Amino acid sequence: MSTRNGLFVAVALALAAFPLTNVAAQSPPAPRFGTSATPAEIAGWNIDVTPNGAGLPPGSGTASVGAKLFAANCATCHGAEGQGIPVPGHGVYPRLVGGIGTLKNNLPIKTVGSFWPYATGVFDYIRRAMPFTHPQSLTADQVYALTAFILWKNGIIVEDATMDAHTLPAVKMPNAHGFFTRPPPETANIAPIETPPFRPSP
Ligand code: HEC
Q: In Å, what is the CA distance from 28 to each residue of 23, 25, 34, 88, 98?
């Protein structure tokens, strides 16, 4: 009997000696990889707003309401006028206002007003990430109002404009056309990587 057949017989004998139920009972427990996310849990994470406004929730707000919210929740870090605040040894809490038209300068001032291409992104960012120490604590109305305040401080909308799911996507940002899609790298004239020929071991 060859070694291979001998092994087969040995396995067959082992299986006969231990009924399958016994084998299953002794196998290690299935890995516990958690539970399936519920629709409510998924909805909690599914908060992205696209440039055209898809994903914006119901609600609305104006700059005057946003001014009070900004003073109470944001000004300690971003400055009362959104001018940013230096943090000694750590750079600066971001400036949110101004710098429009400076992007081609040697020292461009990048702010929400000067740099960001979509007004809807301001809503998404604030709702998702601010205030820095209490992210996702604001209501939709509050986020609309804060977005309106920052856009107004940048001179992009008028003070009494109401921002909501309909008006916000229509706001044109100064740098809306400052971004381009990076073209794919040129690969047509690059030789394929040579792989050594397969040589079976003797
Ligand atoms: C404790 C300090 C702090 C508070 C309070 C705070 N922020 Fe911020 N904010 C930051 C920091 C730090 C960043 C930069 C985060 C990063 O780049 O990862 C930032 C970034 C931002 C940006 C993006 C700026 C850019 O150009 O990238 C916006 C918009 C913003 N905050 C709005 C707000 C609003 C609105 C509030 C109040 C509801 C607020 N922040 C409260 C610290 C704070």
A: 10, 8, 17, 56, 62
Class in CATH terms, 59-174: mainly alpha
Nearest protein CA to atom 31 of ligand 1, as residue = 130
Q: With a threshold of 0.85, does the pTM exceed it?
A: no
Could you give the CA distance from residue 55 to residue 143 in angstroms, rounded to a whole number? 14
> Measured from the CB, is residue 113 less than 6 Å from ligand 1?
no
The two structure tokens encoding residue 55:
């994903």
CA of 103 to the centre of ligand 1 (A): 21
**DSSP character at residue 60:** E
- Domain layout of the chain by residue ranges: 59-174
The pLDDT tens digits of the residues spanning 96-122 come to 999 999 999 999 999 999 999 999 999
Helix runs in 60-129, H state only: 63-73, 75-78, 112-115, 119-129
